[in-house]
Write a structure and sequence with these properties.
Radius of gyration: 39 Å
Number of strands: 7
Shape: flat
Helix content: 55-70%
Distance between the termini: 114 Å
Length: 402
Amino acid sequence: MNVDDFQDLYKLLRGSKSAMPVLDAKALYQERKMVAATEKLAYARETFLESRSRLIKQDVEKQVDKKAKDADRQIKKLKRKQEKLLDVVKAFDELLPQLEKSAERERQRDEKKEAAAKLEKRQQRRNQLIAKLARRCDLPDGFALAFSNADGDQQLDLVWEHFRFEEVKADEDIFGESLYLIRTDQQSFLVCTPSEDQIASSFVVASVVDDRKIKPFSRSEFLELGTRSKMVLLIRNPERQVLDREPVKEESEHDGNAEIKPDVAADESAEVRVMDMGTFSQLLTSAQRCGLVPGADQIGHVRDREFRKGQYDLAFQTIDSLFTRFSAAASQRTQRLAREDADISSGRIKISPKDLQAKRSRDRTEGQEVERAKRRFQVVLEGLRVLMNSKESDSKAISAEK
């Protein structure tokens, strides 16, 4: 097989819509892309047969009226045409098997390369994990007792405080003298594997709580626990960012319209101490971050209009209305999370330990934002109450003087 074979086939097909795919197959063959060339040539053959199959299969003599004066000439003409079509089919059928053999060799080479790449990738992952593996010596004092006294989700939370979870999805994820968390429908086990030289076709793991031996596992059985999301490998927990701490200073979304007032007499600065533009900006930031305040942009409008104009009663009404809607949304969120926890505990929702801890971490972070927004609302509402009362007292005092 060579380039001339493709060219000869093209000459037989010249003028038909199957000709161009043959040229494409020829170009792919020259580029040593055998699989693609085979697919293109097979497409050309299929297209050719779809348009010519009726003529190839028909009985030529039945297609001509034998009583016609030129019946013999018509029959010979149709037979010549039929023979040419059969020559094309023959050319296809001679070329395709040869090309398919080359394509199969290419597939085998690609499969070997892909398998080698996957093996290398798994080995790289294993080497990276070795440096992070959690060992018995990484267990803090009192951990075993705390784990045994906890149950269910509390055990997961306790482990998550000190370690991180890594999926067990391949044989390379089985390490010696390493910690694994196994979770069944009833309980959780924190176990340690034997030394590397003892992990063969089967091995026994031990509970880190009481050193009790667990039933022997074959490597395939142990791996199946991981692939079914019943087990995770523990790795050491890197330093975590402290999320629970209230930021010392929040970035303000102030648009630059607020006035920065100098120190003045106590009676003139009283309103600034109770409430300022930045207080509204902090509330706006928290409301947007928590995602539970529909129409949070109204806070900025209240800051720049009603509050700036001293219309504290109107400002209070708008903010209080937003707080009511926020409280309802926060309550619905709490109920939704409680239902999800119940469904997870009962098994109605299937979730791997790793995904469960990620969910819990996300829920805690969102919960902190919700609590922060709640505090900001309370600060603003209380400040507006003080300002309304102060303004009412001033009005009464002025009336009394008159």
